[in-house]
Amino acid sequence: MPRASLLPQLPWGRPGVKVVAITGVLATTLWNLRCFLNSPQVSREASQHTEPLLVLVWEWPSKQVPNVSGDICRELYGITGCWVTMERQLLHRADVVVFPHTRLQPGRDSLPKDRPLWQSWVWVSLESPSNTKSLAGWNQTFNWVMTYRRDSDIFVPYGKLVPNQSATVNIPAKTNLVSWVISNYHKTQKRAEVYKNLSRYLHVNIYGKANKKPLCKDCLLPTISKSKFYLAFENSIHQDYITEKLWRNALMAGTVPVVLGPPRANYEQFIPADSFIHVDDFGSLAELATFLKTMNSSRYRQFFTWQRRYSVKLYTDWRERICTICSTYPSLPRGRTYPNLESWFNT
């Protein structure tokens, strides 16, 4: 791994014999010092001021593992002074070690046996508490949490609105009223109950594995964009748990999201109040269905006013999420661990 140069910069011009000799001795001394500092027995903090932040990802969060060793944060996202690696032999030199919950085994045998005092461990999860198991065994283990929740040490949302300069509104042509893409349909989920009752009052075009009508990756947005409304129903209801169902399937597709998730006030911390419809806005699903079916074109266009000021940024690349650690590192708290991770996440 490239390290900061320890050799002195000499003036331009051809050096004399005495200068060359002195320089040679100095270079040898500095080289020996460099080897000493690179030894695992030496505290990382003794030399980190000359080196980039080293982030070790213990296991990659997704099944597809890209080539991550090197200066990818600078190359991809303009974040300097940070190196990301998956080489476990660098454990004793790493400033930060990242542990995705989906890759943690139930037992602690999956964790490193030794941990340098200066090193910080990060627990990572993008799943909701309802879909995150075996948290009880990780008390007093992790220094920081990295999740979709805004109160995380490292906040990694599924998406966000970013300012733009277009001042235009683009609404795709519509051929049907409501659509929904669903892959994991469970009758015990609230979204299944809401859909079942809502479908008594209007027709919903359903796609996805659950309905045996899967959409290819490039077909998803063009298909959904033909609907006036999209059921952005989360699989569970939790604070800040607002996923790609809103950001990609609805807003990015150019349709109006009908959301089922945390309360409206929580959504309004992410997107404008007039950009979506919340199931809880209505006293009954019959009222919601009537509202959708009888909406005129002028009222419908108002839901897209946000496009004049914002564009959707979708977070899909785990490399970008990992590099977020580097940009937030200076402001992160030091010297503490989460005493009860399960209690914090289920709050």
From TrEMBL:
Molecular function, one GO term: 4-galactosyl-N-acetylglucosaminide 3-alpha-L-fucosyltransferase activity
A Gene Ontology biological process term: regulation of leukocyte tethering or rolling
Pathway this chain belongs to: Protein modification; protein glycosylation
UniProt-annotated location(s): Golgi apparatus, Golgi stack membrane; Membrane
Name used for this protein in its record: Fucosyltransferase
Family affiliation: Belongs to the glycosyltransferase 10 family.
UniProt keyword terms in alphabetical order: Glycoprotein, Glycosyltransferase, Golgi apparatus, Membrane, Signal-anchor, Transferase, Transmembrane, Transmembrane helix
Domain Fucosyltransferase N-terminal: 52-159
Start and end residues of each Fucosyltransferase C-terminal domain: 172-344
Record field: catalytic activity: an N-acetyl-alpha-neuraminyl-(2->3)-beta-D-galactosyl-(1->4)-N-acetyl-beta-D-glucosaminyl derivative + GDP-beta-L-fucose = an alpha-Neu5Ac-(2->3)-beta-D-Gal-(1->4)-[alpha-L-Fuc-(1->3)]-beta-D-GlcNAc derivative + GDP + H(+)
Chief localization: Golgi
EC number: 2.4.1.-
Presence of keyword Membrane: yes
UniProt source species: Strigops habroptila (Kakapo)
Membrane association type: Single-pass type II membrane protein; Single-pass membrane protein
Cellular component annotations (GO), alphabetically ordered: Golgi cisterna membrane; trans-Golgi network
Lineage of source species: Eukaryota, Metazoa, Chordata, Craniata, Vertebrata
